[in-house]
């Protein structure tokens, strides 16, 4: 956070296998190992696979987070939408016994390339404490960014840019402990991040390499971004109940609205601006029971059930229906057992049953248009109905911990996700939803690797393969200008390497390398290396990524960190007849970014931070801009920027 508070950037720079950031208000193309991920706050889903708008990483401000859990691959504990893994934002709890404590943080930030109108600021106020059996945390944050400038000092193209964005976050958590082993907790968080730009978009030129930028003028439509995201969660925990079991029960409600850009001439020959509405309510019961506790064998069983109602729609701002309301009911019981044999061999296995019902009322498609008001998809009535899915998901993993120098593991897990049904419904070409291929995706994940610890060195390596009989590849159709979903079988594979080395107390080094590749079986013959088969495009498969960091603490109160993120090249597709790549298929050219973070503890309760991003002012197109191949999103990355902060605790 000393460098940037943007969670999509933080995760991309810190987590191997996590696709690179586009430095925008959405996370299109950011996934885990080429598969969709489930984003949660305290276990409550922020994602909607029904109409995957890819905006879920920006759901909360990091100032109220205690930690972020990232799980790669599927797990029986969480289900629908977690085919590639999950990101769980864990909110903070009070860390003091005082009745009243607090922290005030102030930040100033902006461009160092061209500072005029690029200044921004951020304030965060937090109070927390404990009053007998009660504890509380309340926090408020407001952040305003200035103009984002690229390495040449020009305004970054304003489509979903984080420049000129107003963000706020309000957070409250109240806890009560009726007994030492019990806790009742109520959490509320609201987040908003809307771009209020003074610039209108000037499209880039894909053929000549001319970047997208902005000119002064009022943007079309209403501000884009997260209009609101409200989360309310009531939980009850007891550490020891019947059979020494622990119990965790949750009731939750989440509602959000995200606003997208104006599409010129796309709807009935005129303009239109869409927004995604998503409402979830549900309950979760999680228990853990010790079964055996012997010297040579320990066994624990975790089990429970998820229940969720999810309503998702994508209307236009003016009220016209583009994607009708989809009402999903998801019930999923699960169980997972872990065995610890002689404290050397760990075996885990789990089973989850997903039962999904999606109700869609009768609706009328919205006529979409291309150049000269030509009809791409006509308007006609579609008969709704119920889409039903049910499947069992299995996972198993084995790890051997006898030797620190070599701890190997193998695992198999299955993931499940309904496809982007909203995309299929809005582009329907048949008169009934039961004629549309909306079958869900079931993924098999295979992984093997090891971890080694030698003196101050920790090294890990893993390789993985994931396969699915149905795909969710979003493929660009140059004839219509639309993106459609291809359902061909898919195979994704890759590997990750990571190392941490503490040379001595004051100096630490870290590095990682992640590689992912994937293909789809066009002729559906079970092979992925035929001449007809194609690579998965950039929206799914990111270019290889290298990260490194050096952390130096010359004195106890000073921490200095130099970070490196390198995105390598990927070029898997041919140019079209116009001499450019089709959408999602653009070649990615390598670029290299360095950042710096300094933290100085002035006094026990006062801390100064200094962050500098893109230290060497690299002039580059982010990977997303390169593979997306859309003129309005062909923007350069941000040039050198600075973030100075002070925090005072009391």
TrEMBL record:
GO biological process: siderophore transmembrane transport
Keyword flag Transport: yes
Keyword Membrane: yes
Entry keywords, A to Z: Cell outer membrane, Membrane, TonB box, Transmembrane, Transmembrane beta strand, Transport
Limits of the TonB-dependent receptor plug domain: 6-85
SUPFAM superfamilies xref list: Porins (SSF56935)
Main localization, broad class: membrane
Entry superkingdom: Bacteria
InterPro entries, per the entry: Beta-barrel_TonB (IPR000531), Beta-barrel_TonB_sf (IPR036942), Plug_dom (IPR012910), Plug_dom_sf (IPR037066), TonB-dep_rcpt-like (IPR039426)
An example Gene Ontology molecular-function term: siderophore uptake transmembrane transporter activity
TonB-dependent receptor-like beta-barrel domain residues: 184-615
Membrane topology: Multi-pass membrane protein
Compartments where found: Cell outer membrane
Pfam families per record: Plug, TonB_dep_Rec_b-barrel
Gene Ontology cellular component list: cell outer membrane
PROSITE patterns named in the record: TONB_DEPENDENT_REC_3
Endpoints of the signal sequence: none
Family: Belongs to the TonB-dependent receptor family.
Matching PANTHER family: FERRIC AEROBACTIN RECEPTOR, TONB-DEPENDENT OUTER MEMBRANE RECEPTOR
Protein name: Iron complex outermembrane recepter protein
Organism: Pedobacter terrae
């Amino acid at each position: 956070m000393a460098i940037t508070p943007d969670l999509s950037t933080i995760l991309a720079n810190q987590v191997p296998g996590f696709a690179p950031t586009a430095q925008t208000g959405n996370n299109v193309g950011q996934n885990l190992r080429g598969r969709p991920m489930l984003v949660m706050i305290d276990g409550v889903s922020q994602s909607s696979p029904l109409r995957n708008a890819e905006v879920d990483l920006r759901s909360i401000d990091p100032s109220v987070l205690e930690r972020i859990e990232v799980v790669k691959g599927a797990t029986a504990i969480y289900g629908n939408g977690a085919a590639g893994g999950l990101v769980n934002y864990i909110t903070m709890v009070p860390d003091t016994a005082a009745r009243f404590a607090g922290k005030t943080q102030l930040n100033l930030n902006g461009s160092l390339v061209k500072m005029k109108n690029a200044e921004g600021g951020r304030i965060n106020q937090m109070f927390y404490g404990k009053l007998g059996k009660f504890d509380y945390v309340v926090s408020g944050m407001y952040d305003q960014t200035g103009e984002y400038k690229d390495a040449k000092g020009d305004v970054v193209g304003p489509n979903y840019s984080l420049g000129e964005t107003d963000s706020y976050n309000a957070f409250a958590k109240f806890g009560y402990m009726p007994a030492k082993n019990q806790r009742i907790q109520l959490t509320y968080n609201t987040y908003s991040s809307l771009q209020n730009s003074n610039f209108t978009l000037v499209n880039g030129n894909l053929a000549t390499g001319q970047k997208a930028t902005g000119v002064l003028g009022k943007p079309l439509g209403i501000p884009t971004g997260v209009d609101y995201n409200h989360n309310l969660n009531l939980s009850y925990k007891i550490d020891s109940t019947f059979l020494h079991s622990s119990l965790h029960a949750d009731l939750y409600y989440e509602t959000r609205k995200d606003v997208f850009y104006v599409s010129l001439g796309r709807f009935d020959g005129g303009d239109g601006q869409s927004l995604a509405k998503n409402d979830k309510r549900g309950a979760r019961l999680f228990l853990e029971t010790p079964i055996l506790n012997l010297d040579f064998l320990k066994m624990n069983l975790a089990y429970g059930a998820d229940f969720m109602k999810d309503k998702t729609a994508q209307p236009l701002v003016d009220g016209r229906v583009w994607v009708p309301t989809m009402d999903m009911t998801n019930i999923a019981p699960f169980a997972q057992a872990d065995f610890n044999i002689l404290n050397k061999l760990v075996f885990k296995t789990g089973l989850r049953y997903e039962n999904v019902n999606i109700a869609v009322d009768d609706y009328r498609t919205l006529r979409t248009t291309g150049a000269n008001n030509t009809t791409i998809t006509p308007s006609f009535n579609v008969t709704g109905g119920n889409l039903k899915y049910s499947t069992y998901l299995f996972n198993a993993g084995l790890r051997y911990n006898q030797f620190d120098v070599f701890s190997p593991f193998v695992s198999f897990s299955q993931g499940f996700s309904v496809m982007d049904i909203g995309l299929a419904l809005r582009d329907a070409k048949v008169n009934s939803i039961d004629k549309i291929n909306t079958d869900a995706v079931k993924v098999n994940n295979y992984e093997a690797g090891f971890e080694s610890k030698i003196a101050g060195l920790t090294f890990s390596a893993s390789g993985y393969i994931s396969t699915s009989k149905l795909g969710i590849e979003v493929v660009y159709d140059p004839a219509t200008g639309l993106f459609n979903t291809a359902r061909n079988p898919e195979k994704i594979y890759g590997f990750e390497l990571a190392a941490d080395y503490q040379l001595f107390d004051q100096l630490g080094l870290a590095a990682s390398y992640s590689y992912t590749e994937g293909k789809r079986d066009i002729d559906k013959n079970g092979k992925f290396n035929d001449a007809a088969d194609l690579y998965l495009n950039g929206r799914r498969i990111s270019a290889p990524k290298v990260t490194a960091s050096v952390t130096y603490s010359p004195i106890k109160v000073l921490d200095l960190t130099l970070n490196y993120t390198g995105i390598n090249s990927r070029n898997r597709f041919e140019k079209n007849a116009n001499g450019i790549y089709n959408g999602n298929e653009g070649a990615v050219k390598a670029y290299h970014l360095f950042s710096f973070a300094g933290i100085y503890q002035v006094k026990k309760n006062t801390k100064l931070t200094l962050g500098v991003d893109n230290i060497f002012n690299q002039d580059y197109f982010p990977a997303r801009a390169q593979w997306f191949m859309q003129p309005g999103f062909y923007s350069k990355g941000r040039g050198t920027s600075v973030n100075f902060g002070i925090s005072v605790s009391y």
